[in-house]
Design goal:
alpha/beta; about 35% helix; 4-stranded mixed sheet; about 150 residues
Length: about 150
């Protein structure tokens, strides 16, 4: 049996984009007891905006963002003495002990990897969030931010 040749005039069948088409892979995972200072360094050096957080059992319990870390670093540096007022003092900021678990956002908004993008957008608007985690079988595959949705248009 001969196959018909594809013609440029043939209609193109396109499927609606889904979550896994636009998600960004998760760069790394953090754990609740991780030191916040080291986690902040990892986030900033990786260029990632956020990272999922797991508890001791490996269950997803939150997300920590660069904004969370920046607020922590800003507050911890306020407690440091002014270098110019006290030049003999060590200029390194005083870092109160904090863990990723103390800084993370516990509200998790998840979507399945096969959810249509229009539904992802509605879900984010309804929940008033800027990012959602893309999951399959309780495993984090990636993240979608509001910016990712705008780029996908």
């Amino acid at each position: 049996m001969r196959r018909r040749a594809f013609l440029l005039s043939d209609p193109v069948i396109r499927r609606e984009p889904i979550a896994k088409d636009v998600m960004r892979p998760v760069g790394f995972l953090l754990r609740e007891p991780d030191d916040a200072w080291n986690a902040a360094r990892r986030l900033f050096e990786s260029g990632k905006a956020d990272a999922p957080v797991l508890n001791a059992e490996g269950k997803l319990v939150g997300v920590v963002s660069q904004a969370d870390m920046a607020a922590y670093l800003r507050e911890s540096s306020r407690e440091a003495p002014d270098f110019y007022a006290e030049p003999d003092h060590d200029p390194m900021p005083v870092r109160p002990a904090a863990t990723v678990g103390q800084l993370m956002t516990r509200v998790l908004v998840q979507v399945p990897d096969d959810m249509k993008l229009a539904d992802v957008e509605r879900h984010m608007l309804r929940r008033r969030v800027q990012r959602v985690l893309v999951v399959k079988d309780n495993e984090v595959l990636g993240v979608i931010t509001a910016i990712d949705l705008l780029r996908a248009r």
